[in-house]
Automatic annotation (TrEMBL):
Signal peptide span: 1-24
UniProt name for this protein: YwmB family TATA-box binding protein
Pfam families: DUF1779
Source taxon at top rank: Bacteria
Keywords: Signal
Gene3D superfamilies: YwmB-like
InterPro entries hit by this protein: DUF1779, YwmB-like_sf
Amino acid sequence: MWKSRLRVRLGILCPLVLLLAASAPLPQTETALVQLMEDVGAEPAFYMMHHGSRTTSAYGRAEVPQMMSRLAKDMDLGPVQSISVGDGLRWNASGYWTRNLRVELNVMNDKPQSNFVKPYISVRVEGRGLPDHRLSQARKRLVHVLRLHGIEPRTHFSVQGMVHSAEGISKKKIVDQVLTQLGAHEVESMKSSHTVSVSAYTPLFTGGLKTKGGRMNLQAAVKTSDDHRIILTLGTPIITIEY
């Protein structure tokens, strides 16, 4: 019976995903992943939008902290802190854009002895519960600030929650249900006694990453927590939160 329900949902979801950008408050991929969480009986508890990339332009060694300060100011974040990490230097600042959206900015110079470097920039926008239109507004704000500084946005989205109706259903079956509803095929996988993690490709999402197994733009992971709860994590193109 659950297979017949999946076929019905897939028939509904495929055309719906194509219209989400115009009809929903969240971007297409975020909306599809949140809807999938609910379809498999999971309640979203935590989500994160993440940007990570090196700058395309090189900066003088002394210019990196100045660039960090300008970014933090334009993102309305708190004081910048400098931290020594291994052989490199990292600058960190954080703050809240809304009551539920925490933003953390990190700029890393992993070649502090070089005169000119291309630092790595990481921005995390984190929230709890069910994402709403404020996440879409945060995305627009993040994209605007990054482009203002000549940085091309490269965002990933991940959402995580507990599966409430998982009794008698294997972790692999939950992952298979996610792939089926998105018309995705498996690219790579990792399975253990506690976790099933699959990288996949769906034609319903744009972009992606190339791996040894092929092109992927979706990750799904199901694990058993220490207190025996079933936790589902979805991400596009990859999961960028701990699972």
